[in-house]
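task queued by scheduler; priority normal; single chain, no ligands, no partner chains; default sampling; output format set to structure tokens
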Amino acid sequence: MIRCVSCGEEFPDDEIIYTCPKCGSILEAVPDFDVDKSIFDGRRQNVWKYKECIPVDENKIVSLDEGGTPFVHCDKLGDELGVDLYVKVEGSNPTGSFKDRGMTVGMTKAMELGVHTVGCASTGNTSASLAAYAARGGLRCIVFLPQGKVALGKLAQAMFHGAEVFSIDGNFDEALKAMTQLAREKHLYLLNSINPFRLEGQKTIGYEIVNDLGWKSPDRIILPVGNAGNISAIWKGISEFYNAGFIKDLPMMTGIQAEGAAPIAHAFRKHSMKMEPVENPETIATAIRIGAPVSSIKALHAIYDSDGYCETVSDDQILDAQKYLARTEGIGVEPASAASIAGLRKLVDDGVVEKGEKVVCVVTGHVLKDPDTAIKASVEPTKVSADIDTLRDLIVNKH
């Protein structure tokens, strides 16, 4: 079943719709599972470990063995900030970002529905993931990207996996509007996060976090917010396990946006459910450079319902956190991912995150998604001859 998040109208899950025909709001898939948590024991650590909780036909699964990502206890950074810190490393998914979780479910639904073409608008990671999963499923793939606004690593992935890539003269929001219109005209099946089945895959991040913590919830989950599907998906997943009796507590969902693309943070500061779009969003963190997030209402519900928080960080804070996480804990992430770490540091300084909290930061994409930014932030290699005495002097005497 599919249900409107605003008016509660229900629709069959074989109907291809993206918004509620009655009120125009967005939709969510409603799983119906009644299992004991022991059913998950001994299964392979991936998204489909939780297949009973994902409302698609398991006989149509299109998978690249996504999910089961590292859950790293970061002692050094945690000790410095005074929190018990874990980092969920989503860059270890097959195409290097959390989008693979949603795409395996979205593509499985596409196969179930019998569509022949899938499409998305993207700031990069969605297109990279969709292209790979469309290739895996044998479907035609159409991608709209905002011209000059996509990191090189992501653009290369989309093209290399065979997507038909169109560079749109406009920003992401304009590209999504055009793609959505084509989907409504039935030319393709839309797999942006407005598709409710995409988020059914992404909610497994929440499943894995509480499972990794021994069926316990952390005090807080912090993650970057762009199009806003992920924060609402993780909240949905953890809430489902809470309602099933698998866990006893719920986390405070905490979203971090870049200062130049922060419509949800602005709404939160006004204690409002109404988001005002940012017309010309700008940030170094290309994955969250979105001015009109389609899942804003879901994200704000997740934040308010969990007694959570939303904050902004500057590009300088993002880049500093990106480098610091890599050099302190060995975890290399793209700039948007580092927003969660930058946000944690800011919230600790501001007293929003209390000392001793058990915090999970979700880092959403691999450092090589945006190699140009990583290279610019690094010192160039030292040019030197192969003479051993020279090398010894450089390494030993300058240590």
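post-processing summary
- The CA atoms of residues 194 and 294 lie 6 Å apart.
- The longest helix spans residues 99-113.
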